[in-house]
Amino acid sequence: MTLLALDPSDFLSEFYISFWIPTAVLTAALVIKLPSIIRLWRDPLLRAVGGLLLLACGVFVFCTPSTIAAVNRLTGVPNISAPWCYSLITAFCGSCLLLIITWRNGLSDRSAATRRAMRWVISVYSGVVVALWVLFLLADAPEERLRDLDTYYATTPFMREEILLYLVAHAVACLITSRLIWNWVRAEGLDAWLRWGLKLLGAGYVLNLIFDATKLIAVAARWCGQDLDWLSTNLAPPVAALSAILIAVGFILPHAGQYLHDRWRVRLAHRELRPLYQLMRSVSGEGVPFVLRATPELRLTRRETFIRDVLLPLARHIDTGLGRRSYDAALALGHPPEQARALAAAVSILDAIEAKARDPEPPESAAGPDTTNLLQEIGAVSRALRRPDDIETVRARAAVPAESVAVHE
Length: 409
What we know:
By secondary structure, the chain is mainly alpha-helical. It is 77% helix and 0% strand.
């Protein structure tokens, strides 16, 4: 009974999300994108994303009550923040729609349908922005409202039309954008990071539709003489804030996710080469000099180059017959072909190191084996070196003469 008697506005106030939180997330998204935007400034799609994120930051900065009051005081016009904020919101949702059309169809798509759709969006939403300012100039809204302007002036001539216009324009853009995104999510061949980014964008625009619905219900209630202002003042703002967070993460996830994935892949490859690198260091007596400011890609390249440089002269000591027997032995022990090749190569390299220790200079007439596959598969060989027991088993079996193996089998 206590829960039923609780005022919804009091309940929702517990879940208030400061507008500065989505502003911070959007700013972080812009900062993450900024290096790519500067480096690839000629790419209109990246410029559009940067402009969109900047516009989204502006929406939440100027829609914060403290900023609304400051703008009203600075201009000396009560509620002039209303058309300014409505214009920013309208421009943002129109820009989102343009970006999704361009992003999905690709910059190379110059079809008549795409050009017509883009012209339609630009003309309609530019017209809406102009109409918002005209309606504000015609309206009489002398009392400043920082949080509840939508419902307070819901029945005031011209302000009523202005509020309805921006909400409908926002809802239409979000509905179309959301549908385009969810249709795109179901397309074949999407990168996993892009798919998840689109899902977050789609969820963000669905929340935007909830924001519009709550605002419209509250405004319509005023028209009917009812009071549902808490929907507009307490429910809509946190929904908008959560929506902005999802949209910001949706924009940065494909870029940041792929970046982190590539970094992880490079670091993993660098770490996997460590056993073979340590083995080659024991042969050459030196290693790759450590450079503090070297990028992960450069460190990986240097490690790969060092391993191959040591393997090339060592190849003259490799026993090709032992390599073939090791491969057959690994297959006989149940290892798959790829792993069997890596184990055989590891056995050959270890044997070559011992042979070099016994005779540093092989005969001049000795022709080294073809090392093309060995140099290309250093990652697999290095992983095989992490399994010394398997290597010893294969080596012991390969050391048995072929006749003895046949007899035992």
